Amino acid sequence: MRKLLDSVLDGYSSTVMAYGQTGSGKTYTMCGRQEITEGGVIARSVRYIFEAIRRRTVLDDQKTYSLRASYFEIYNEQVHDLLREECSPREVRWNQSDGFHVEGLLVVDCETVEDVFAVVNEGAKNRKVGSHNQNKDSSRSHCIMTLYVDSISSMGDGPILLRHGRLLFVDLAGSERLKKTKSSGDMLKETGSINRSLFTLGKVISALSEGKKEEIVPYRESMLTKLIMESLGGSSLGLMIACVSPATTVVDQTLSTLHYATCAKQIVNIPSVKMDEKDRVRMTSFPTGKLTDVFMFRRS
């Protein structure tokens, strides 16, 4: 995690994704206990980023940082802004510079750790949850909290460089077996939508792990895979956290989770610093101008 977080401060995109069946602890892993300020990957990462910024600015007073945050969920193949509870579903667009992105998201300026926690707590309060036979607090949507980290640095007497780091925390809804959950009504529809999107995610992971990146990878078959496309074989660093249950009754789903986690380790991303094109051209004239490197999706 520290490697990913430091990379975000250097202008790279990074993604942390919790994957596994329902009730295996994905939301607990990402958010910790009920209060986001206690434990969890998100809280620890946010604290680390602010501390790292403090250390970096002490060493280099020519560099400044600004942070913003957004939070949305993918529910029944529609995107909802968790910071605007009453708004209609958001449109997803594609362009050359940003790829697939959500239009009209509320993005909140964050000057302190508490500001980020307020964003996450508000989003967590508004996300869709339900109860079934396998999980009394089951997530009914895929949730993505994004932290945008912009850095401005002066290169001596040279130009000002602006880099756009980004960190995605992806809390996936869990795969479910209808025979075990006994879902009905709206929850039955939700289960179908969740399982279809996870099936597409599995297809994308399998295709990329087999080296089929140059062939047709089915990103467009699901809203989820569209919006994390950069994290799967793209220009982002990534980490998948495989959450599994010790229960013998779900061993088949545990094996499935471990299979896709193993496949994800074979995916190769080529991360690059995100900056304006004119700044990219300027930077190549400096000794530290190497802009790309190759990382496995999950580094050991």
TrEMBL record:
Domain Kinesin motor: where?
1-267
Question: What residue ranges carry the coiled-coil annotation?
Answer: none
GO CC, any one term: microtubule
Cross-referenced SUPFAM superfamilies, in alphabetical order?
P-loop containing nucleoside triphosphate hydrolases
Single GO biological process annotation from the record: microtubule-based movement
SMART domains recorded: KISc (SM00129)
**What CDD domains does its record include?**
KISc (cd00106)
For this UniProt entry, the molecular function terms from Gene Ontology, in alphabetical order, are:
ATP binding; ATP hydrolysis activity; microtubule binding; microtubule motor activity
Task: Summarize where ATP binds, as residue positions.
Answer: 20-27
* Cited InterPro entries: Kinesin-like_fam, Kinesin_motor_CS, Kinesin_motor_dom, Kinesin_motor_dom_sf, P-loop_NTPase
Q: Which UniProt keywords apply?
A: ATP-binding, Microtubule, Motor protein, Nucleotide-binding
Which PROSITE patterns does the record associate with it? KINESIN_MOTOR_1, KINESIN_MOTOR_2
Q: What's this protein's family per the entry?
A: Belongs to the TRAFAC class myosin-kinesin ATPase superfamily. Kinesin family.
- According to UniProt, the name of this protein is Kinesin-like protein
Q: Which organism is it from?
A: Selaginella moellendorffii
